[in-house]
UniProtKB/TrEMBL annotation:
UniProt KW keywords: DNA-binding
Keyword Secreted in annotation: no
Top-level taxon: Bacteria
Organism ancestry: Bacteria, Bacillati, Actinomycetota, Actinomycetes, Streptosporangiales
Name under which the protein is recorded: TetR/AcrR family transcriptional regulator
């Protein structure tokens, strides 16, 4: 993989910061390529060459936060990262995933509904596998794959929007589900 030029890396960071600010204040509907170019101080051509279109830019925003999140649960400090009892790690993971989902709700809603199986891509598989490992240690006799899916289901962006639930309500529901696990 070729190393990114320093000026390209700076432009990428400025573009993503500007786009994140626009999404935070105006939602996904407010994410216009011309506005991002103006806010970041880069040319519109640079923006299109780098990200292709609005959805490419949205996926780049998701990817940046996704990398940070995965790093946290794989190698970060406990209880989210290794070193805490498994049930505490599951709870910390689900809470952090809930927070992560609400932080990028518009973007994740767009990404998760882009196609029939869009929600079940690489990130979902990483979450699922992480939970399967932890659940298998807590309840070796259980169907860890099924339980992982059951715990991840309430954190789907489209379900959160459809039900109109707030983060505390989602976390309370997850706690209720976890009482049967631990």
């Amino acid at each position: 993989m070729a190393q990114e030029r320093a000026d390209a890396a700076r432009n990428r960071a400025k573009i993503l910061a500007a786009a994140a600010e626009i999404v935070a204040t105006s939602g996904m509907k407010g994410l216009a390529m011309a506005d991002v170019a103006a806010a970041s101080g880069v040319g519109i051509g640079t923006l299109y060459r780098r990200f292709g279109d609005r959805s490419g830019l949205a996926y780049a925003l998701i990817d940046e936060k996704e990398r940070e999140f995965q790093q946290a649960f794989l190698t970060g400090p406990p209880p989210l990262g290794p070193g805490a009892p498994e049930i505490e790690r599951v709870r910390a993971f689900l809470y952090a995933l809930t927070d992560r989902t609400f932080a990028q709700l518009d973007l994740l809603l767009m990404a998760e509904t882009a196609g029939e199986f869009a929600r079940f891509g690489g990130a979902y598989e990483a979450y699922h596998q992480h939970l399967v490992v932890l659940i298998a240690r807590i309840r070796p006799e259980a169907d860890a794959g099924f339980l992982a899916d059951a715990l991840l289901a309430p954190i789907a962006a489209n379900l959160i929007v459809h039900r109109g639930r707030a983060a505390p309500a989602v976390k309370a529901g997850l706690d209720a589900l976890l009482t049967g696990l631990g």
